[in-house]
Design goal:
single chain, 341 residues, alpha/beta, nine-stranded mixed beta sheet, 11 helices, 12% strand, disordered C terminus
């Protein structure tokens, strides 16, 4: 099974070929089937409801996915900021991308709550190549505090991960199609990381690879939440962190919102990174739009002052001397140091 981290590292590495105001068409694009999410995680700005929350239309999905494949996009993530298992036609989207459009690699990230065995089986039979679980809580109580969802659903998610492995092996045996199973977690510090590792150890036998991520500030929207300190920008994964500037996301990966907007950011929860309307603008033209070129030039100069990237890149000077994980601490209130996340 190829490592998911190899794919991630390839996308987050900004090579000379892509370090341009007009880079080649990206190899990877994430498309938002829905903006809705059933979690209210404190470290994610989705719960702030800074924009409308709805689903993508099938006609637009079918058209833009075919157009992007014709332009050379090779990897399609059928998710962006929402939870795609809330969409009933998720398997149809995978099947269309894989078999009608010919994408070599179709991938999906989920919080796991709605990803039961039957739904996972439908996605894998449709041709899903990679399924990753975002697993960021050490136990049931902490799950409730982090996500705002009932504590009992923590075990539900753990069981879904285990069930996914059983389903994957069954589908592979029957059809020969192998879907990778992965998980990622936020890298915490101190006691919290010890607790988190114990939870990760339970799911490790059921996934092909697990990796850690730094805590992102989500374009500045969640910086400082619950007393945390986040990394600047999007530095990728722990073990292969990238410089905050220039941000690789503007150059090597596309992001499409449910309402057809091409965004310059992985964390565009409020629409400020909107570069073009794909209902009216072809993908290639949008990818090379004047607005997008100007933002890329600012990133390449490593000075995003006055741009939409400024708040995302804002950070304490001593936190960026090295591209290492930033310590994260969680507190209930001043004087109470009981970990809550």
């Amino acid at each position: 099974m190829p490592k998911i981290t190899d794919r991630i590292d390839r996308i987050t590495l900004l090579t000379d070929e892509y370090a341009s105001p007009v880079p080649p068409i990206p190899k990877s694009v994430k498309i938002e089937l829905t903006a809705r999410c059933d979690f209210k995680c404190f470290f994610c700005a989705s719960h702030m409801r800074l924009r409308e929350k709805s689903d993508m239309s099938w006609p637009f999905f079918a058209r833009i996915v075919k157009e992007m494949r014709d332009e050379g996009v090779e990897e399609l993530g059928v998710f962006y900021l929402g939870e795609s298992f809330l969409v009933s036609w998720l398997p149809d989207a995978i099947r269309y991308a894989k078999h009608e459009c010919g994408y070599p690699y179709v991938f999906l990230t989920t919080n796991g709550r709605m990803a039961d065995g039957e739904r996972i089986r439908a996605c894998m039979k449709a041709g899903l190549d990679s399924l990753k679980f975002s697993f960021n809580f050490a136990d049931a109580e902490q799950f409730n505090e982090v996500t705002g969802v009932k504590s009992k659903d923590y075990r539900r998610i753990v069981e879904h991960i285990k069930e996914a492995r059983k389903v994957r092996d069954e589908v592979q045996e029957r059809t020969g199609h192998l879907c990778g199973l992965f998980a990622s977690s936020i890298l915490y510090d101190g006691e919290q990381q010890t607790r988190m590792q114990a939870a990760v150890d339970e799911i490790l036998p059921y996934v092909d690879e697990h990796y850690y991520l730094p805590l992102y500030g989500q374009a500045g929207l969640t910086s400082g939440a619950k007393g945390t300190r986040s990394t600047a920008g999007n530095q990728g994964r722990v073990g292969a962190l990238r410089k905050p500037l220039p941000c690789w996301s503007l150059f090597t990966e596309g992001h499409i919102s449910y309402d057809g907007r091409l965004s310059a950011c992985c964390f565009d929860h409020d629409g400020r990174f909107d570069m073009a309307n794909l209902y009216t603008t072809p993908f290639r033209e949008a990818w090379h739009s004047v607005k997008f070129q100007a933002l890329r030039r600012a990133n390449l100069s490593e000075d995003v002052t006055g741009t939409v990237c400024e708040k995302c890149i804002a950070y304490e000077e001593d936190a960026t001397a090295e591209t290492t994980p930033v310590p994260i601490q969680f507190y209930r209130a001043p004087g109470d140091v009981t970990p809550v996340a």
